[in-house]
Task: structure prediction
Amino acid sequence: MPEPNVALVREIERVAFRAWPPFETVEYDGWLLRYAGGFSRRSNSVYPAQASTLPFVGKLRHCRDWFAARGLDLVVRLTPATEAGVDERLVELGFTLECPTDVMVAPLGGPAGVGSATVADSFDAEWLAAAEGLFDVTPRLRPAWERILSGVEATAGFATVRDGDAIVAVGLGVCDGPWLGLFEIAVDPSHRRRGLGRRLTESLLGWGRERGAVRSYLQVVTDNAPALALYEELGFTRAYTYWYRRAPSGF
Result:
């Protein structure tokens, strides 16, 4: 596997964070601390974006205290573009690995696609209820999740596929300049292996193309073989992998 293009990693990270906005972002000695009510690791973790000047362990403890004040554990998000040596030092301190995720990219050239999902400019109560069930969003975290969705400032498209009157698949597309990001794609377990995920994804790709996007990115957990196979069939290739490290008990 070739080394990731660090410039590309930074570009995608920038648009992806705008597409999934936290409630708070604080820069601390080159690191970004993000908080969004506990919904999703991405928006509730530390991102070591630039090199440090402060002592490493003390800096981590400051981050720990910042998250503890918000009721969360310390989790650090790492990519090939983060500060060199951070991952190795976290391992030495006993931080545990969580959720390796592949970021995949694809060009958006060619025809508009053959998807047949409906894509709306905003979500409504029906989309939210369907997505809440598909993602098993708990009542405690639903306000944070809805606030994240409402906070997207770029052009957003909320996709649905129906079986009769019931929504059986949902997805979110976010256009930001030349990039289309795909998020929140899910199919009802009782309707899988019917091509609904493909239909929904192709519809969002066509929707993004019509709005001027020329490239797309998405994120998929590295052990999700069916999703990886689908996205590869649609022309996506792996650009890089990111992962998380959680602080050990008592740190």
